Amino acid sequence: MAQDIHSHDEVADAVSELIRRTDPAAADLLDAERARQQSTLELIASENHVSPAVMHAMGTCLTNKYAEGYPGARYYGGCEFHDKVETLAQERAKQLFGCGFANVQPHSGAQANASVFLGLLSPGDTFASLVLADGGHLSHGLKVNMSGKWFNPVHYPLHYDANSPEFERIDYDAVRRVCLEHKPKLLMCGYSAYPRVIDFAKFRQIADECGALLMADIAHIAGLVAAGEHPSPFPHAHVVTTTTHKTLRGPRGGLIMTSDEEISKKINRALFPGMQGGPLMHVILSKVVAFGEALKPEFKQYAKQVIANAKSLAKALTERGFRITTGGTDNHLMLVDLRTRDAELTGADAEQWLERAGIITNKNGVPQDPRPPKQTSGLRLGTPAVTTRGLSVDDMTRVADWIDMTIEGGGDAGVCAQVRGEVEQFCERYPLG
Ligand code: DSN
Fold this sequence. Notes:
- The structure is a single chain.
- By secondary structure, this protein is an alpha/beta fold.
- It has 2 domains: 62-294, Aspartate Aminotransferase, domain 2, CATH 3.40.640; 305-427, Alpha-Beta Complex (Aspartate Aminotransferase, domain 1).
- It contains 16 helices and 15 strands.
- The chain has helices at 10-22, 24-39, 52-57, 80-97, 109-120, 146-149, 172-182, 200-210, 222-226, 261-275, 281-294, 297-319, 347-356, 384-389, 393-408, 413-428, and strands spanning 41-42, 69-70, 73-74, 101-103, 126-130, 152-156, 186-189, 213-217, 239-243, 254-258, 323-324, 333-337, 359-360, 362-364, 378-382.
- The strands form 4 sheets. It has a 7-stranded mixed β-sheet, with helices on both faces. Strands 11-12-15-14 form a 4-stranded antiparallel β-sheet. Strands 1-13 form a two-stranded parallel ribbon.
- The protein is globular and about 60 Å long.
- The protein binds D-serine (DSN).
- D-serine (DSN) binds at residues 46, 109, 137, 192.
């Protein structure tokens, strides 16, 4: 299934040749990156391999056009087809997520989030979120981000009691306590390193009780939500943001949705002209194609397989002595606490060793991690990209073996080279085009 959409990509070859004619240096870099992606296993939870149609929709003449404004109300002439493209993207997004309004213009998830802040809050306003170190996101109130500099974040905790069956999961009672104490104007949920189902209905109850708007940032789980494999934030959240390039498997970009007309007007004004200028219309064409793919029944199968693969990888790693935070996963990602294998081992080292072995991951803090973000005690692993490639539940056991061997080898060059050789050979069975 997954390989069908990635059968040999002649356009990618032609694009490379075309660039080579005028710019060999750029073509060399492009070819090197294609070879890297082909020969390694991508386990970064926020990455994916898009289909050739999604990929090449971005390399089109729509990049030539300014279309500031919205369909039917642009600041430039010549937007007849751009209006249709953007409207189609909006319609498909609404259908996919079951909401009333969609703004498809955000260049990224962080800009989508910033636009919500600009549209719905005033500088200094209080909002509640999970701190980045526990799995949140930098745009959810990190002090060096605009959200933390110009607004007043208060953070709710996870369950930190290791003896609790809820260990490292959201502590909804604590969310309620924090919200009743601080009366935030906005309550945020949705995370970048949280492996469990989010109870949007519970969040809405708390938001209503403390008079807050509920915002769900579903950047990581959007594809699972679209496929019905994770509960939807609608009708609970007042506003929903996402990226389009993670589990949703679209082009790099953002999306904001709501079913409230007044909120949609505020968000539209905040995004343009408040936050961005001209929309990236070539990317919006690609969003159209990606949303179309996600509406197909095959995408539901894909999302199911992403979760099955993640569960399989988490189980295989647990059997090999790695602790997975919360004891496993319900979605596409897991956080591996490396300290159970080796108290001295950092995420930074593990990431580097695995990269040498052809397995691409990212270091990530685990909840209450004593180490700084450039070191960390954990690794975040995800299955969206390898599932697109066609890897199965059984393949995940092999992947776990390679991770185990590499970590056991402690960065030894010979071990890394051996695993790398096996991974490269394995990857040949799953061509990316
Ligand atoms: N950088 C993204 C991630 O990896 O989760 C979040 O923006």
